[in-house]
Amino acid sequence: MASIFTSHAKRAMRGARALKAGTVTVNSFGEGDITTPFGGYKQSGFGGRDNSVHAHDQYTRLKTFWFDLADDSAQ
């Protein structure tokens, strides 16, 4: 988590983009609410996102299956 304090909006956006932080607040400090993803980068944090729909990703694995359901016996 990082915070930027400035009266210049363009500087705030430039700084927020440059920071390697999961959450960046501007002219404030806080984690947001339950709908706001929260988590660190690299070795900071626990390796996932907490809160929001993104928290689900750390408890599941995505797997794709492709099945050929063509009926070859009909030929």
TrEMBL record:
Pfam families reported for this sequence: Aldedh
InterPro entries the UniProt entry points to: Ald_DH/histidinol_DH, Ald_DH_C, Ald_DH_N, Aldehyde_DH_dom
Claim: Oxidoreductase is one of the keywords in the record: yes
Keyword Oxidoreductase: yes
Coiled coil: none
Keywords, in A-Z order: Oxidoreductase
Residues annotated as domain Aldehyde dehydrogenase: 2-64
Protein name as catalogued: Aldehyde dehydrogenase family protein
Organism field: Kiloniella laminariae
